[in-house]
Amino acid sequence: MSEKKNLRVLSGIQPSGALHLGNYFGMMSRMIKYQEENELFCFIANYHAMTTLPDSDTLKSNTFNAACDFLALGLDPEKSTFWVQSDVPKVTELTWLIASHTSVGLMDRATSYKNKIAQGIKPNMGLFSYPVLMAADILLFDSQIVPVGKDQKQHLEMTRDMAIRFNSVYGDTLIVPEPDIEENTQLIPGIDGQKMSKSYNNTIPLFDTEKKIRKKVMKIVTDTTEIDHPKDKNTPLFNLYSMFLNIDEQKNLSDRYDGTSLRYGDVKQELFELIMDYFGPFREKRESLVSNPMHVYEILKIGAEKASTVADEVLERVRTASGINYQ
Ligand code: TRP
Question: For the domain bounded by 198-288, which CATH number is listed?
Answer without folding.
Answer: 1.10.240.10
